[in-house]
Sequence to fold (349 residues):
Amino acid sequence: MHINKKKLTSINNKNIINISLTNDNNFGLSFFNFGGYIDRIEIPYKNEPNKKEDVVLGYKNFDDYVNENSYFNCIIGRVSNRISNSSFFLNNEKHELFNNNNSNHIHGGREGFNKKVWDIVNIEKSSNEIICKLAYLSPDKEEGYPGNLNCEVDYILNNNNEIIIKFWAKTDLDTIVNLTNHNYWNFHGHGIHYNNIIGHKVQILSDQFLEIDDESIPTGNIIKTTNTKTDFKKFKTLQQNMLTEGGFDLCYIVEDNNMNKKVASVYSEITKMGVEIFTDQPSLQFYTGGNMNKIYNGKFNRNYGINYGICIEPQQYVNAINQEKFKNPILIKGKEYKSNITMKLKNDF
Fold:
């Protein structure tokens, strides 16, 4: 297990550090304490362990993480996904949030947790894993949310080739919380097989998703996937005709799961590299990058575009605070919020 830390710059007199972790099998994870952005996930080829592919999107220049709003592989909070009409009622009080998605609020607002400098609390190394704990205090009324919210995120890389992300939060006023990771995966890598996500195989172990309106806000209805294009219970290969008209941007229900039950898998037919996702959250957002920009200044001088990344985002139901039918995302004063995601990296699909 190996750790490397490098100072890049400073923002508001706080150092921005790049932390790189490598396990004993040559799998790698690299991230910033700015927004928790993951700038590199490396998987070695099975038969050439010294040859690796970087399998997440990312910018060539750090400044783009600061200035752009792509959400490449970052921490999303206070609340991931959309909140209708940028407002909600809690304890008979209406809370107005920053409007940044048509008339709605998305991914924490104008400056969500992806735009914050997180404190590096500690980095612990053992024979089998490395744990880096990040922390951020979100003040009362930040982006319109009530309560001072203490947040911690553990980034873990172990010798089982797993990246584990553990979210924790506690508030001094009742509030709402729904944290997630927003990785943009592309398992073709950045080398000779570099391309968009066509040729990826996807499996989502769910048979229902949340119906949405024209602004991607859940209607409250739950739709069955059986015998439709939304059914991914068995592996399907992403093809061009599946990605036309926006592709997929749906919240699948994965209720009654536990951390030992896989909820989704994605891999490249070409490199045989991919990931298995485990979570204790009740749903996941499956997004195929249909709303991406036409061009990004990507790392390795690659210019990403529409449909160049796949997102699997474990979370609570979208807009749950405004839907009586959904389990509410309220965090009561003094209670603890916890959410866990395990990403099992593989090179032998």
